[in-house]
Amino acid sequence: MDFQDYYALLSLYADYTAVVDNGEWDKWPDFFTDDCVYRLQPRENYERGLPLATLSFESKGMLKDRVFGIRETLFHDPYYQRHIVGAPLVRQADSERIVAEANYAVLRTKPDQLTDVLNTGRYLDTIVRTPQGLRFASRLCIFDSEMIPNSLIYPI
Predict the structure, then answer these.
(1) Alpha carbon distances (Å) from 86 to 58, 66, 149
(2) In this structure, how many other beta carbons lie within 10 angstroms of the beta carbon of residue 13?
(3) What percentage of the chain carries pLDDT values higher than 90?
(4) Backbone dihedral region of 4: left (phi > 0), alpha (psi from -120 to 50 degrees) or beta?
(5) Where are the alpha helices (DSSP H) in the chain?
């Protein structure tokens, strides 16, 4: 993988994080291919090969449905989230796809409370080259703790 490709990968991660942290939900599905997989799964289930996931979407259409839910149907106390994402570690790369992983921590701040840790784990990503640039074909968010808030509203 050359510097230009690695820089494009870094930009994908940074742009994704900025969109999610800024609540630009309509832009979130555009980071994915039409037939993508987005899954938020506990580490224990992932490591045991168990399919149960906290969130599991299998197309860009399902991501758009989630955006509709965030905007129109989910009621919750408002909060901000902030991602801290490590540099991606490239596991495999060729002319069509990149397989990478990165550690993440997501902080949550409610307007009237101190900031707390919402979720930590690692991304396991399969990224493909498209005419529009790099896009996630698969993003697995494997979180470390079995304890999570009673609802996760926003994408991780």
Answers:
(1) 26, 26, 23
(2) 22
(3) 84
(4) alpha
(5) 3-21, 43-48, 60-68
Domains and CATH numbers, the chain: 3-143 (3.10.450.50)
Nearest to 6 by CA among 105, 83, 93: 93
Q: Is residue 86 over pLDDT 90? A: yes
Question: What is the number of other CB atoms lying within 10 angstroms of the CB of residue 33?
Answer: 17
Q: 């993003």: which residue's tokens? A: 139
Q: According to the model, what pLDDT value does residue 95 have?
A: 93
Question: What's the whole-model pTM score?
Answer: 0.94
**Any idea what DSSP says for residue 88?**
P
Residue type present at position 40: L
